[in-house]
Amino acid sequence: MAYSVIYLLCLNVCVISSFLISGNQRSIPVRTYNSLVSYLENGAEVRYFFNISSCLQSASPPFKDIPVFGGEIKYFSASKNSGEDAGQLIFSNVDYINENDVNKEIHTFWIVNDTAKVFWAQPGVYINITDNISGIYCKWTEGQGSLWVKNQAKQRQLTSFPEIKTMLTFGEEVGWVVNITECQCAAGKGNCYHGILGDTIRGFKIAKDSSIHFSTSMTTMFPVAMNFIQLTTFVRVDANNTATFITRHLDPSTFEQDDIDIMSCPIHSGSSIGRGAKFYVN
């Protein structure tokens, strides 16, 4: 009987250890802001986890809810550290919740180097309620939150329009990333958004002229004015191996438009000197 117990205990430990080792082989922790942006710029799948209780500086926080947030970074906007200008990464998640009435809950993350500004609110279905925004600063490189990148061993870059179209029509999940500095701004050089955008294509349309169309959007909290902004990107990929990106900043409650940028980019060739929009299959 004792031998059976020891055997079962050893078996359980071995199975758990194997699972953890396997997990560590699939994902690795992200340690710095620069490496985080580099992973995202190269199409990696990055997941996040923030336990707000670990970020508290006071035993009596100004908000009653102390949540735990986690998920995968999908649509993001990022900029790199440059001289005295600190880079920043913005991503957000919107969920519908069913309490007394149907409502939306927005979780927004602004990461600047080692600090993550985490905000959450229930702005109503029409995103026009701003009096319940909660927020806190988390030192994510010091254990107040964590970011993990999935092993990219199986990642494949798509370097032409036919490849992108084939992968989409065969049911593959295609991700995209574009560094706007490698694109041509319709309003002239220096007059467009100059950061990095990326997401996964969730739904698409192929038009009569064979061009591929898709879009993505993110509702985020702006920490200075403590209001909401919707960033929407429309993408068109053409058979001549170019992609057009149109970004709009809107007030999500009124749909008043702040600005619009139109950028034309080549599809990245995959070479070390290539430039333009990158498309991936993970």
UniProtKB/TrEMBL annotation:
* Segment forming the signal sequence: 1-18
- Kindly indicate whether the keyword Signal belongs to this entry: yes
Keyword list (alphabetical) reads:
Signal
Q: Which InterPro entries match?
A: Uncharacterised_VirK
Superkingdom is: Eukaryota
Q: What is this protein called?
A: Uncharacterized protein
What is the species of this protein? Mytilus galloprovincialis (Mediterranean mussel)
